[in-house]
Amino acid sequence: SFRTVTGGADIETGPLPCGSAATMTQHPATGGSGTGGTDWVDLAADKCTVLYTGEGSEILSDNICTNTQNPDFLASGLDHAFALKILPDASVIVADTERVVHVSSGGVITSTCDTGSAGSGGLFSLDILPGGAAFATGSFGNNQVDYLTVAQCDAGQASPTFSFDGTSGVGASLGTVYGVAIFGEA
Question: By the 8 A CB rule, do 74 and 83 touch?
């Protein structure tokens, strides 16, 4: 079962459709050209499909309700895929080291963005704002956090709308920001 909480209030509660018998531990997700296993994961709206990256060139898919490996969501075209998030329209946004990539719900790369950022080359973490219209991505290379809208990404915008240095005010040493979390994101 699961419980999603934001701001102290439940957004959604209930059992997974597969029940307590099916877990990723029983059926390890495999494959990929990177680490060979899971790296970053996100659960689709059906609460059975898990999309994940393995630091390789694809986005993989596993069904935790049937304990089966699905066909790849995106079979190739990424460099080193890290954090990914499924957007409300079932498309996916993924941090891909040198860029951010938007992938349609059908598994086709539709656009890239954030390629001209000082943080590109280390784009690793990513989170979406509530509603899914914008996102922030973080670079492990220089601790920079970039902000863009999905529409700006679809237009191929090379530089972020705004960014900030993740070392300022948080006491993080350079090269140590490996996560971005946005308050209110479910």
Answer: no
Give the E-state strand segments of the chain in sequence order. 2-6, 9-14, 41-43, 49-52, 60-63, 68-69, 84-86, 92-95, 100-103, 109-113, 123-128, 134-139, 144-149, 162-165
- Provide CB contacts within 8 A for 45, sequence distance 6+: 86, 90
Quick one: tokens of 132? Answer: 């899914």
What is the distance between the alpha carbons of residues 12 and 78, in angstroms, rounded to a whole number?
33
Looking at this protein, which amino acid is placed at residue 135? Answer: F
> Could you identify the residue written with the tokens 């999905």?
150
Give the model confidence (pLDDT) of 30-45 as tens digits.
Answer: 666 777 667 889 999 9
Q: Are β-strands 60-63 and 144-149 bridged in parallel, bridged antiparallel, or unpaired?
A: unpaired
pTM of the model: 0.83
Closest CA to 83 of 142, 40, 122: 40
Q: What is the C-alpha separation between 92 and 133, in angstroms, rounded? A: 12
Task: Report which of 136, 125, 143 is spatially closest to residue 162, judged by C-alpha positions.
Answer: 136
The DSSP bridge partners found for residue 4 are 12
